Each structure stands twice: as structure tokens, then as C-alpha cells.
Amino acid sequence: MSKKYLEGEIVKGVVSGLENYGIFMSFDDDYTGLIHISEISDNFVSDISKYATIGDIIPCYILEVDEENKKIKGNLKNTEYGKEKDAQIDHGFGPLKKQLPIWMENELKKIDKT
Hints:
By secondary structure, this protein is α+β, with helices and mostly antiparallel strands. The chain has a single domain (10-113), classed as CATH 2.40.50.140. Helices cover 25% and strands 31% of the residues. It has helices spanning 80-88, 94-113, and strands at 10-19, 22-26, 32-36, 57-66, 71-75. Strands 1-2-3-5-4 form a 5-stranded mixed barrel. Strand 2 and strand 3 form a beta hairpin. The radius of gyration is 20 Å and the shape is elongated.
């Protein structure tokens, strides 16, 4: 019997669900899968919906296949899609770096008025 999906390959799947711990996927031939939150990005992921929405067709790098149960364990880290999404999202102190000068300017204006 030949295997439908192989570890190490990238396949497209449909996002069938989102939970705070990962992205659920549907593939051909009744295979389903999960991309755990730890496999979405090397950066901290605070909002999975920034990476996918239900109905999206996205690539999935296959980490492990359970042929008997037709389950796939995957990740986005090893796909260009994951890298593109990471580049679009502010991680770490990025948002603070943008907001801090605005806060400082507002506070200085308050001080100047007094």
C-alpha cells in the first residue's frame, strides 16, 4: 500500500477549525490534521486568527502521519506561507517600539500645558 501523505512534504489543506491551541485542517481522502500553536511560528503567537481563518486553503509541512487514523501533525514554520505571515505580524517589542514615541509626545504635551 502506498502512502497518501509523506513526512517532510508540503501539502495544501483547508482550515476547518481554529482553537487557542492550534489550527485544524482537512485534507483529501478524509485525512485531518492539527498544526499546534507551537508549530505555527518561531515567534510568540498570541492570536492564531492572524495566521488563518476557517475556509482558507493553506500549505502544511507534514511532521508526522498516522495512516491508521488518517491524522496529520503539521507545521507552518517550514513553509513560505508561515514566513510571509510572520513578516506581517508585529512580534515581541515591535508594537511597543511604535507606540512609545506617541505616548511620550502626548505626555510631554500635558506637561507643557501646566
